[in-house]
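Minutes, structural biology subgroup

Action item carried over from last meeting: produce the structure token record for Short chain dehydrogenase (Sulfolobus acidocaldarius). EB confirmed the sequence was re-checked against the source entry. Recorded below for completeness.
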Amino acid sequence: MRYAIVTGGGSGIGYTTSIKLASLGYGVIMGDIAPNIEEKAKSVREATKNEKVIGLHLDVTDWDSCNAFYNKALSSLGIDHVDILINNAGILRDALFVKMTREQWDQVIKVHLYGAFNMTKQVVEGMIKYQWGRIINMSSISWKGNVGQANYSAAKAGLIGFTKTLAKELGKYNITVNAIVPGFIDTPMTAPLPDKIKKMFLERIPAGRMGRPEEISNIIAFLVSDEASYISGAEIEVTGGFSQ
Ligand code: NAP
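Output recorded by EB:
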């Protein structure tokens, strides 16, 4: 059995990805800062009849939390490495740049960029040892620039560079590293956006609707499979045709 860590696994894309991977027979370790992560993992276990699904507290911004999370995952499941990492945890702290605070900048950079660094460092040695690995970084179409998101765009662009560099460094160990670039997806992250903003985006999406989180999970499931063994360093847009 292969094991996957899904950060931000308790909500939105992370949750549907945990269900998808568990239903395909992967062991899944769902990590989230939200306090209900163990209940969420229980619901995935029940829905998929897969006992190898656990939920653990995780703050991806904090190295010690990532290290404790990884060690607890290994000991709880009786494994010595994890094969797949989905760096998915995310937040928005939108503001026009002239009004953006240092806290808003720091929080977003920490969750997305430090988070990907902290978690990838936990898993990479085990992947190298076993000469197999899959790392998926969740970017966003906003990496190309979006008003009110200087922090988020910078972080998501940073993840593209991180992805392409790791793909070059880790390819020889049979580890692929890819970025997913979602467009406008219907999750708790986008739910609070004002109707005016939603309407503005919808008018620019050729598909004429928001994406469903399952439509992101489907491409993740393919990228972590053996079938995707020659895809690495790619940024894959899943946007219903929308582009910035
Ligand atoms: P979501 O429903 O808000 O889920 C994100 C999860 O990450 C939440 O459970 C959140 O917990 C958790 N999280 C936040 N900070 C964390 C931390 N420090 N450590 C661990 N977990 C943390 O969002 P989503 O829409 O599924 O987004 C998933 C990923 O896709 C994000 O990276 C996002 O940037 C990216 N994305 C989303 C869209 C979209 O349209 N939805 C588009 C492009 C890219 P709390 O709820 O407690 O904060």
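Discussion: The pocket of NAP is lined by residues 7-8, 10-14, 32-34, 58-61, 88-91, 111, 138, 140, 182, 184-185, 187-190 (CB under 6 Å).
Next step: EB to file the record with the rest of the batch.
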